Amino acid sequence: MTVEIELDALPAFSVLSKEHVSGNRWRLTKPFFYFHNTGITIVIPKGFECDGDSVPRIPVIYAMYKGRAIQAAWVHDYLYQEQRGKEFADLMFLDAMEDQGIPEHIRYPIYWGPFLFGNSRYRGKA
Amino acid sequence: MTFLKSMLAAVLFLALSGCAALEKIEESPIASQLITNQITLRFIAGSDDPVERAAQVRDVVEKVRGQVSANKSFTLAELDDAVRAEIDWQSLSAADQELLNFGLNKASAAIAELIGDGVIDPAGMATVATLLTWIDQAARRVR
Fold first, then answer.
1. A119 to chain B nearest CA, in Å?
2. d(Cα B110, Cα B19) in Å, to the nearest integer?
3. Which residues in chain A are contacts of B31 at CB distance < 8 A?
4. For residues B132 and B10, what is the distance between their CA atoms, to the nearest angstrom?
5. Is B41 in contact with A45 (Cβ distance < 8 A)?
6. Residue B1's pLDDT is what?
7. Edge-to-edge, what's the strand order for the sheet holding A18-22?
8. Which of A2, A30, A100, A111 could form a disulfide with A94 if both were Cys (CB 3.0 to 4.6 A apart)?
9. What pLDDT does B46 receive?
10. pLDDT tens digits along A84-115
11. Contact with chain B for residue A30, Cβ under 8 A
């Protein structure tokens, strides 16, 4: 029996195993993998800490967007810390949200946040 | 020991899977490396303990590299048989079994088309060595 497998059809993310640290902070208990459709793979090491998807605490906005982009937020935070280029990090964030199945009308507003206002945060991670 | 055997088979499979992209290596080595990289990391990511599996992959890559550099000659059919015999199918999940079968079939067909059924020549051995290096580099990223 021959089985055809398309790499693109496999899950884009590995299982996200994390433990709570404090406040909004979480720590990976296993490495976390993001398989981008270009073949690039982001490997986030065990022990990396992230504060999740940062959404302004404005009631309606917070309710609409908070908690939507969990996996993508880990990828984005890690790429900011690794200083691989802000544009690259932001675009990977956008693609990761698409791979999470987040619809356009949600993922673009989330993307615009760091795209427009993330410069100081990116520099602060250096 | 059983696990080591399946690891050896998996690494050989990964090397062969990389060979499936041989046709493109000269024209697009980066694409071939990305494919090998992703297959390796998917295999590692599927484990309950990716860090441990990555270390095991690197150990086995070293062993296979030693065999390749020893210049022992073998045919594609012999390599294919040896890999399949080393696989402890019962210890693998259904998804891993599918992935292995798929990779072996693809790799065998691709290599046969490239080098025929004879003994793998030095150039082919060098390519296998390159692929092993890529697998090792991918596994090193997991910590």
1. 27
2. 7
3. 39
4. 12
5. no
6. 44
7. A18-22, A25-28, A49-50
8. A111
9. 83
10. 899 999 999 999 999 999 999 989 988 998 89
11. yes
